[in-house]
Amino acid sequence: MNYAWLRNWQALPQGCATPAETAREELRLAGLDAGLREDAALGEGWEIVEEGGRPVVHGGSRGLLYGAYALMAARKTGLCLPRGVQQPRYTLRMIDCWDNPDGTIERGYAGRSLWFEGGRMAWQPERIAQLGRMLASVGLNVLCINNVNVGEEGARLITEDLPELARLAAAFRPFGVRLMVSIDFSQPLRYGVETADPLSPAVLAWWTARADAVWAAIPDFAGFLVKADSEHRPGPMTYGRSHAEGANMLARALAPHGGVLVWRAFVYNCLQDWRDTHTDRPMAAYETYAPLDGQFDDNVILQVKNGPFDFQVREPISPTFWAMPHTRLALEVQLAQEYTGQQIDLYAMNPMWREWQTELPVSLPAAVAAVSNLGRDENWCGHPFAAVNLYGFGRYAWDPEVSPEEVIRTWARLTYALPENQEDALCLMLLNSRSIYEQYTAPLGIGWMITPHNHYGPDPWGYEYSPWGTYHRADRSGIGIDRTEKGTGFTRQQPPEIAAKYADPAVCPDEQLLFYHRLPWDYVMRDGRTLARRILDDHREGVERVEAMAAVLRELELPEPDRSVALSRMERQLQNAANWRDIISDFVTRLSGVC
Amino acid sequence: MNYAWLRNWQALPQGCATPAETAREELRLAGLDAGLREDAALGEGWEIVEEGGRPVVHGGSRGLLYGAYALMAARKTGLCLPRGVQQPRYTLRMIDCWDNPDGTIERGYAGRSLWFEGGRMAWQPERIAQLGRMLASVGLNVLCINNVNVGEEGARLITEDLPELARLAAAFRPFGVRLMVSIDFSQPLRYGVETADPLSPAVLAWWTARADAVWAAIPDFAGFLVKADSEHRPGPMTYGRSHAEGANMLARALAPHGGVLVWRAFVYNCLQDWRDTHTDRPMAAYETYAPLDGQFDDNVILQVKNGPFDFQVREPISPTFWAMPHTRLALEVQLAQEYTGQQIDLYAMNPMWREWQTELPVSLPAAVAAVSNLGRDENWCGHPFAAVNLYGFGRYAWDPEVSPEEVIRTWARLTYALPENQEDALCLMLLNSRSIYEQYTAPLGIGWMITPHNHYGPDPWGYEYSPWGTYHRADRSGIGIDRTEKGTGFTRQQPPEIAAKYADPAVCPDEQLLFYHRLPWDYVMRDGRTLARRILDDHREGVERVEAMAAVLRELELPEPDRSVALSRMERQLQNAANWRDIISDFVTRLSGVC
Questions:
Q1: Other C-beta atoms lying within 10 Å of the C-beta of residue A303
Q2: Count of CB atoms within 10 A of residue B232's CB?
Q3: Which residues of A touch B592 (CB under 8 A)?
Q4: How much is the ipTM here?
Q5: Is B332 helix (H, G, I), strand (E, B) or coil?
Q6: Structural domains in chain B, sorted by start
Q7: Is the dihedral of CA A260, A265, A266, A268 positive or negative?
Q8: Which helix (H) or strand (E) segment is A224 a member of?
Q9: What is the pLDDT of residues A235-248, one digit of tens each?
Q10: pTM (2 decimals)?
Q11: What φ, ψ does residue B123 adopt, rounded to 5°?
């Protein structure tokens, strides 16, 4: 069954070789009388004009497909089409899947892998076509299919399993989706090369031969993604080489084919001693990469997580974005709700992404990538509403300033046919969902009170003595880390005008207060409440807001099985929210004495 | 290679059918000129008398073997033999192995199972004979070979795999060691019976047929061990039946064969809500079993853990021992150092067991059982010194009042040939090892600050919001649970003369203070220090004592590989002790403000 926001399109396009052909077939299947006029100069862009009483889509081959989907969506929703030529803001609009060859997905909450099982590739052509259609319908164009933590079997994708990879690439090709794979930096060692030192000619030769083979099999292959020297992964530091040296070596193997080398900037000390109060994990990426600005080859993309920690509900924008004007950067977000409810609790992300744009110029990233929330579940994303994030990411990748209201409204209307007041209620619920989740889990920017390892539910002490560099240092006097110049100096990594917004607790927005400052429990907030009281109140109000959402949800006339799935997950969210409220409140009370 | 305290006896007895024959063969192999005179009336007892200038062992068949080993040990150590007839204090002296058919051992710290691999039985005859000899040499006579958490493969031991079980039983028979197996209370369900209700005639019929088959294959089989209605195991409560009804049904199937049914009294709410401050886990066993006193059949043995929690470094004696005068009870101890250092940190147990005898009359238990610390490691117990606990348990099972000094001295001399001052140093180290471990991990009886799940290393908050019923409720004002009549009422379960020793903090021994009482951080102890200061001091001193042990260990001229193994584990113990000191100190400081 097709699903998500495209659920009503039952028939799949067959036998198309190019996106332009797919566009024609999709319009035919949809019964839509529209013209297609290919204009290679438009590239991925498209424009729809009225000609002779019917719409005509102009665009390059992919642009035609994107335009066709836009036309079909407008027909379904009744919403207006945009005027003028639409061009995507980012050329590379990537989905990173953390799928393992054994069929599991790291941080996957929607079932098993759609293309791996038992150590090999295995997939249903119909589901791949549905997914290709879904991705193309919101203009996403690159899919990295395997976990950045690459094991022996994952490494085979560019060697023994390359023919399988080519077959999957062919299945996505009609939808304009190009494949990428995560590679193991030390992979030459598995194939008889005696080192993986990036300055060794033998290593470059091995990768060059590999790249030649991959592009021979898949001429439109996108490139490689690398997680190196990060959380126990191998990397150039083993050989005393910089990340620029490591990335450039790979990039040179890919350059003749037009491939990109995406290098994740997720390096920090994951064996920190909790007794060490000088090391401050959110400063690690900047410290590692800012000095390398200008040293990366043109076809290297440095992929930087949105925040300096790791996909918490609230983080500052990573200062690395401002620190590397001579480097192509990708913004990495996470659709998989690893720390944000795991596709059980509601958490629509466009409102969060839109907030970032008030601070992060859209020009700083050169590309965008999102960790996938997809899996083999019939509804693709585990929770039927979690699809709003995959949909919304496509919209965001085309226009980071798109309004969350419009994204959510369009997704809701494409997905369901609810009476207007119910659609309004659903949209409002999703618009507020992040704020609600934040309020019952981690108000005031504290972060990392989530259960270690599985990252669901509260454990306010779980990271305090761990090696992960994520401490709140709460005691009977107060809570938080001073990250200003008087503390760890994180704010020195930020542009001065941004640091100025946060470095003084009197002006720092409440939502980020405890990221930047250590404050006593009796610190008086701008609203007159003490810090301890405010945390207690927030958690209580957060739960009340979940209860209100649950009441709204029960009234929505959703189709089955969405209704049952959404209601049963809401029961789990209610339980989770109550746990957060009670445990964090107990934590605050034990330390502060305030109850 | 033979090992542990019997390492010098290289040759193994061959072709013996009975313990008496084994006795004769062992004496011959040891080159010991001694007589054997079988006297069935002595049963397991033995006496060694001088006749015609040579020693003669009198005893029943097993008694002869035990006496022969005693003679050999005395010859080796130069220590005196006891005078008069030696009879074991407990008839059933059991080792409970938590071995899984897949070859792993639950809470095993000495390698994989000695008799399971890949879902089936698989063993080396030589190692089984060595183990039989080790067990017999300290008079242990029952071995339960599989985990009390019985899965599908474990359940097959009394059905499809019974021929394999019989072969293993035959291998242990010459050493007077009888086998027992853990069974799954719901096992009839796997074999077509529609219920496991203990009052169902079909269920009794199934178990009766099973017992008949088991004893037909193994005439000297010991019996069944059952963990029911405990930590998610099935049991009679599923059918609204009491544990007496459940146990007696099984016991009646075994009675015609002289088998015993050992029923573990380890029932508590393992899904407790941490918000529930009324339920007090250490009260659970008494509440469940005391009302059933007198209802169990004669061949039921209720196996009660030494303390009311679960093998912590320090616990009160379980009040259940005094509450069931009309029930046969077994005392269950744990040689596997689950919570006490995992055979990395030194922890000799005889000093702890001896302490119990100052309070627990030796007549209250009718039997003793110990969770095994054995595994496939060449040295049997992971740490070469951990064998002292297997050895010591045999000695304890014969005489609970045996002095720890004698046990440890004899073990050390049987195991090593150290110069006298080094042997003294080793013995002192082992004698103090429990006190040292206690001091750096859990002084004052607090317990449960260990890392959840793996149970090694400190995590003072790890159990505070868990479902296991193990809370210290520490906050800025103080720490501990009031278990007196003013609190949960645990002391009401104790005999009044025992409760009187603990119910008043002014007289309660320091080592148990925080098991019984909730006290403020500034509570002044008898030595004049505050509670907070005392905890900080204890952890620091504990680490200093480990450092002193390490210095002693480095000087010991132990044979290899023992020396290397002991030294490398001591490095881990030093690290572990420092972690305990630093994390618990930080915990106390954050809450109390004392540093």
A1: 25
A2: 8
A3: 476
A4: 0.91
A5: strand
A6: 4-77 (no CATH), 93-415 (3.20.20.80), 439-481+518-592 (3.90.1330.10)
A7: positive
A8: strand A223-226
A9: 999 999 999 999 99
A10: 0.94
A11: -150, 160
